[in-house]
């Protein structure tokens, strides 16, 4: 056995000073801070300039409740002072050649055009000469008009439009504050974006109600809207998400894989009634994969398929949920509070505030690095032995709501659906990869940045 504080060679172990003045041995969580001057530093921040405020009342929204979360961000709007501090610190902190500002909510367009004119002006003021600044805006679209679209086009914003499918599907969950439908307003916004030639993606939330109609959803997005970049987000919310953060529950109370409580609709289900059923999620992905492969591959990007192909080519995951580690996608609230992820906007996952510290220090803090490593370190043995481990890496930690059949916690609620999809799609993906390897690489475009 080696003496305490030494390496196996007998040399003294390197140590680092703790905030309380004590010292401890260096470990992997210290690496980003110790190598900050070696190579480019990249991270991404989702900004919530209107907080959780929204003009819609979508039944499955996970963010509306943040206004009432005890010790949470509360309600409010980002001040001019906080806005400039955020933009300056973000540009200073990213030393790569690109900085991407993602404006989300709630509904960010509630801030109005003047706010976003300030955004562009401040970005120009603080931009580094050699750095490319880009903006994306995730919106429900209902407040867009010609003036908005002229601005978005002139300033090269990439827009994400939230739409869940044809009228009867969309209006089931995406409703106005008075309970009325929103489909017509969203379609009007899409037509405005097309008229002004503003590039846009579609973001579609797959829930318990539309997951069994995959081709109705996909064909509507392709044929009616003409979307060429489709993002599909599975709706999974644990019961009590309004107050309780992921992983704060007693693991012994979680249902095991295969038990009825591990699916929506059961009185004691671990998830809300509107959460997508795991089997239905797998069915949805398989059906639209076949449609995409037969008719749209090479012309249309679908987030889950694009990254699966990329990963089988030996490239990194194109979206955070399928990466081995996470932690590089933070969220900033209207008050300058910074959180580990926009799905972890809870007091225990607040990593700081830009009024009291530097954004880049928070992004590479030991606390945030440990958060990112936990995606890998908390995987159960069942996942580590899975044939699809490198395709999935346990997907998003927020969805690890159930236990394996032998009782180990940390299994993803959607596991059954993902396994069905991977078994179905990977043989064809391998054929596609073989074809792609014969072709010259094309430049990588603006990919999914975790738009919610």
Can you offer a commentary on this structure?
The protein has 452 residues and is α/β, with parallel strands linked by helices. The chain has helices at residues 31-34, 80-93, 113-126, 146-154, 167-173, 183-195, 214-225, 278-295, 303-312, 359-363, 366-377, 381-384, 389-392, 415-436; strands at 15-17, 23-25, 44-47, 98-103, 132-139, 157-162, 200-206, 229-234, 301-302, 329-332, 337-339, 350-353, 402-403, 409-411. Strands 9-8-7-6-5-4-3-10-11-12 form a ten-stranded mixed sheet. The protein has a two-stranded antiparallel sheet with strand order 1-2. The protein has a two-stranded antiparallel sheet with strand order 13-14. The longest helix has 22 residues, at 415-436. It is globular and about 55 Å long.
Strand order of the largest sheet: 9-8-7-6-5-4-3-10-11-12
The proportion of residues in beta strands is 5-15%
Quaternary structure annotation: single chain
Q: Report the average pLDDT across residues.
A: 93
The rounded Rg comes to: 22 Å
Structural class: alpha/beta
User: How is the main sheet built?
Assistant: 10 strands, mixed
Low-confidence stretches: 1-6, 443-452
Q: What helical percentage do the residues reach?
A: 25-40%
Task: Provide the succession of SSEs.
Answer: EEHEHEHEHEHHEHEHEHEEEHHHHEEH
Shape: globular
What is the count of DSSP helices, taking H or I runs of 4+ residues? 14
How many β-strand runs?
14
N-to-C terminal Cα separation, in Å?
Answer: 50 Å
